[in-house]
Every structure is written in C-alpha cells, then in structure tokens.
TrEMBL record:
Coiled-coil portions: none
MF term (GO), any: intramolecular phosphotransferase activity
Gene3D superfamilies xrefs: Alpha-D-Glucose-1,6-Bisphosphate, subunit A, domain 3, Alpha-D-phosphohexomutase, C-terminal domain
Superkingdom to which the source organism belongs: Bacteria
Name of one Pfam family that matches: PGM_PMM_III
UniProtKB keywords: Isomerase, Magnesium, Metal-binding, Phosphoprotein
Stated name of the protein: Phosphomannomutase/phosphoglucomutase
GO BP terms: carbohydrate metabolic process
Every Alpha-D-phosphohexomutase alpha/beta/alpha domain range: 6-130, 152-251, 258-365
Cofactor: Mg(2+)
Length: 449
C-alpha cells in the first residue's frame, strides 16, 4: 500500500513507485475521485514512464467500480489531458511525475473544463476517501472507451496560432525523452518548419538528461545543437511537456519573463484591454510592457493554483510564470508549453529579425535567477532582511518578503516543502542587482551559521 499522506501534495499526487505509490493505491484513488467529484464519466491519459500504464489502468478499474464511464486517451502530454477535459466536458486525470526522476510517478487531476483540483478544492477529500478504500475491490461496471485525441489536440492548437504563413524556420526541439516527442511532430506536421529532433524517443528512464529545462545542465545539448545546425530557435520541454524553455539563435537562454511579455503583447493585440496575470517574481518589464500595450497586469503569488484561480476570477487572457508555465484563456485557462512555443514561432516567423533581437525588446532588467539558501529559522532570516531594508524600499508580504525600490526589487520567500529560502532579485543596473543580491544572501547566511 502506498503512503497517501506523503504523496498527496498541495496541487497534485506524486511519489516513488512502488514504495509510496502503487497499483492498489491508484485503484483506491480512482474510486475516491469518482465519489468525491460525482463524475459520471472521466478521461484519463498517461506519460511514457514504465509505471504509468499500470497505474492508469488501476485508477480506471477503481473509477469503473464506482459506475463511472472512462475515456482512455492513452499516451499524452499534460496539456493534451487538459484539451481532453475541456473539449469533452469531462473531469480528467493525468498520470505523470513531470520533471521528476524516473522512479517517481503521480497524478494531476481536474474537473470538467480543465478546472484544477487542489488541496482546498477536493484533493484532500479524495485522499481521505482513498485511504478508506485501499484494498476494497468491486467489479467494474462503467464502460471503457479508448480514444486517440492527438489529432484533435494538434488541430486545436493550430487553430489558436496560425503558423502556415510564417517564413521557413529551422527549429531544434529537445523533448528530453518525454511527451514532447509525441506531441510536437503532430502539431508541426505540414508547417514551414525544418525540425531537428533531440531525444524524441519516449523513455521514462531519461537516458540522456533529466527532463527539467529549468536546470541549465539539461539545456547544454540543445544549445549546442542550435548553434551547430544554424537554427533559428531551440525549444526544450519537460517530461509531461506542459513547460517550454526557449533558446535563441546564439544558443542563449531566453528568460521566461521575456516570453511572458512577448506572448502577452500578442494576446493583447487579439483581445485589446484584457487582463494579463504574472507572478511576483517575473520581471518588472512584464507589467510595464502590458500597460504600454493597453493591458491590465495583475500580480499573484508563485504557484500555478494561484495563477489559474486569478485567471478564472478576472477572465485574464494570458498568464505567465518564471518557471516557464504559460496559461491561456483560449485553452480553458490551463497551461500549455507547446501553445506558448507556437506564439514565439509566430512572432519570429512573421518578420525577418533573429530571435535574440525580437526578445531583446522584452528584456529590460538584470535578474539574479532563483537562489536557494538552506536556513533552519526562516522567520528569523526574513525578519533580519526586513529590518535591514526598512526605509529603503516599499515592502509587501504577498508571498514571503518583497521589497521594491527605484528600479530594483527582491523577493525572499520560504519553500513549502524544504528548509529553504528562495531569493530573486532584479534591477535596471546589473551592479545594483548584484549588490542587493549579495546583501540579502549575506544576512541570510548569518542566520544559517
């Protein structure tokens, strides 16, 4: 039996297979999911990990044992599951551990229309009911329909961003042996794109590198391939392909803040005056550019549940995060790495400049990147930093401590799961950013001693 208390997180289910997550646990969660949501039908998809089909099948048995009909989409990315939930009008479950190592697996759950299920919107109740149902078996009575949704997903994305008229582009894609290797060819088929694939073989052991583009070492092969092939752009996806990282023609990383600003301007051109969501550690340039293009920027806490909730509340057309998650009203307020990539390809292919020049207009500040410090007393460290910067900037505590001065800011926030403080700093002047960063780290370091 798996450890339900350990594997149910704030927004999803994730754990080591089989020690923490096994088939009896998945079956119990399937039954509990139907009971708690009241679903008459459920759509299920899974990634390429070795354990994913088995866990998905177990979940399906549990769901059918509670008389729910199941649409089994088989292999898919997480945003394909969101497409399935939205287009079919069904609650859904995706079996994936995203960018986690091979020994992990998990579940991302949503209600009909891709509305996320988190700890305060049903996930806790599903956990508690599943704990009562582990080992309880019942004969499946709901129907099972296998349905290939890849073409419908690809057609839907292509209807949202028309790439047929762009200039020919040389594109290198690193799928990291994850689900991008399944979805990218379907979406790019027939477009004026010369595709160079890296690690498109579906392999949940991740033999080449971890499928986590936020770690610089996982981008090295893509950066080299872009330069060696004289490509216009490189794209890197995580394991379940809901995140996308962009590399320019020089082999340099493009900040997700710049991508957020770029896509925001395109969505504002389509929907003038709309709201754009950004979290509090995206660049100052994002709200500036949104305002300059007639939009309304709204700042949220870090975390996809906060972004999605605020998007639904405000009717925002788009939302972006520093973690390379991008959310679209036209995609049921859900995130899609490939849809964001298509917006970048459109912006690049509709004119003649190289990508570095295109995104340069959206990069106005110097950022530290996220720096983690291990701290035993997070509250004391935050108190000392707040005291040190008193009177030097405007503080707020939306998520940790943010202090904003003239052309600079920093945010210092605690991790929810580890004894860490995460620092992000930014300034118009690189030396100012460096000075702010080093001052905060020095204070935090003294608490750690």
């Amino acid at each position: 039996m798996g450890d339900l208390a350990k594997i149910f997180k704030a927004y999803d289910v994730r754990g080591v297979v089989p020690d923490e997550l096994d088939e009896p646990t998945a079956e119990a969660v399937g039954a509990a999911f139907v009971e708690v949501t009241g679903a008459g039908s459920v759509v299920v998809a899974h990634d390429m990990r070795e354990s994913s089909p088995l866990l998905a099948d177990a979940f399906i048995r549990g769901a059918r044992s509670r008389r729910a009909d199941v649409v089994h989409a088989g292999l898919g990315s997480t945003d394909l599951l969101y497409y399935a939930s939205g287009s079919l009008g069904l609650p859904g479950v995706m079996f994936t551990a995203s960018h986690n190592p091979a020994r992990y697996n998990g579940m991302k759950m949503c209600r009909s229309g891709a509305v996320p299920i988190g700890g305060d919107t049903g996930l806790t109740e599903i956990r508690d009911r599943a704990a009562q149902l582990v080992g309880v078996t019942a004969t499946p009575s709901g129907s099972l329909i296998e349905k290939d949704l890849l073409k419908g997903y690809a057609d839907h994305l292509r209807s949202l961003v028309d790439l047929r008229g762009i200039r020919p582009l040389k594109v290198v894609v690193d799928a990291g042996n994850g689900m991008g290797g399944h979805t990218v060819p379907a979406v790019f088929e027939g477009l004026p794109i010369e595709l160079t694939p890296l690690y498109f073989e579906l392999d949940g052991t991740f033999p080449n590198h971890e499928a986590n583009p936020l770690e610089p070492q996982n981008l090295v092969d893509l950066q080299r391939a872009v330069v060696d092939n004289g490509a216009d752009i490189g794209l890197a996806f995580d394991g379940d392909a809901d995140r996308c990282w962009v590399i320019d023609e020089r082999g340099e990383s493009v900040s997700p803040s710049a991508i957020t600003a770029l896509v925001a301007t395109r969505e504002l051109a389509k929907y003038p005056g709309s709201t754009i969501i950004h979290n509090l550690i995206t660049s100052l340039g994002v709200p500036e550019i949104v305002r300059e293009h007639g939009g309304v920027p709204v700042r949220t806490r870090v975390g996809h549940s906060f972004i999605k909730a605020e998007m639904a509340r405000s009717g925002a057309v788009f939302g972006g995060e520093h973690s390379a998650h991008y959310y679209f009203r036209d995609f049921w307020f859900a995130d899609s790495g490939l849809l964001a990539a298509m917006h970048v390809l459109a912006a690049l292919g509709e004119q003649e400049r190289p990508l570095s020049q295109v995104v340069g207009a959206y990069s106005r500040y110097h950022a530290s990147g996220e720096i983690n410090s291990q701290v035993s007393d997070q509250a004391e460290a935050l108190r000392r930093v707040r005291e040190a910067f008193e009177g030097r900037g405007e503080p707020d505590e939306l998520d940790g401590l943010t202090v904003r001065g003239d052309g600079w800011w920093f945010n210092l926030r605690p991790s929810n799961t580890e004894p860490l403080l995460r620092l992000n700093a930014e300034a118009a002047d690189e030396s100012k950013m460096t000075a702010i960063r080093d001052e905060v780290l020095a204070i935090v370091g003294k608490v750690s001693e």
